[in-house]
Amino acid sequence: MPEQGMKEGRYTDILHVRTNLTSVTGDLMARTMTVDVGDELREFIDSLVKAGDYRTQSEVMRDALRLLREKQAESRLQALRDLLAEGISSGDAKPWNKDAFLMKVKARAANERD
């Protein structure tokens, strides 16, 4: 079932997602975004609303995007954990000399140019 303002027919796979923005003065402003989700996802979204899990299609989209954002954040956190574990398992730290390191980098760059 399309949200208010949507027409039945050819464009039933397009959703209008309303987001709330806060203006500089602190007032809430609504902004509408049109999203083409395709027939399969449209039917899934409609079934969630019809089942009473969500009140509107926009609510489904907001929840889905929030979950996606959380999943991406967790993926980035896991990547950092993996790098930390790799660093810990690589053994004790060795002394590092900035000047010696820069000399090696410059020498390597000079060799690659030749």
TrEMBL record:
Gene Ontology process terms (BP): regulation of DNA-templated transcription
InterPro entries: ParD (IPR022789), ParD_sf (IPR038296), Ribbon_hlx_hlx (IPR010985)
Record key words, sorted: Plasmid, Toxin-antitoxin system
Gene3D superfamilies from the UniProt entry: Antitoxin ParD1-like
Pfam families according to UniProt: ParD_antitoxin (PF03693)
Family: Belongs to the ParD antitoxin family.
UniProt function note: Antitoxin component of a type II toxin-antitoxin (TA) system. Neutralizes the effect of toxin ParE.
NCBIfam families per record: antidote_CC2985
Protein name: Antitoxin ParD
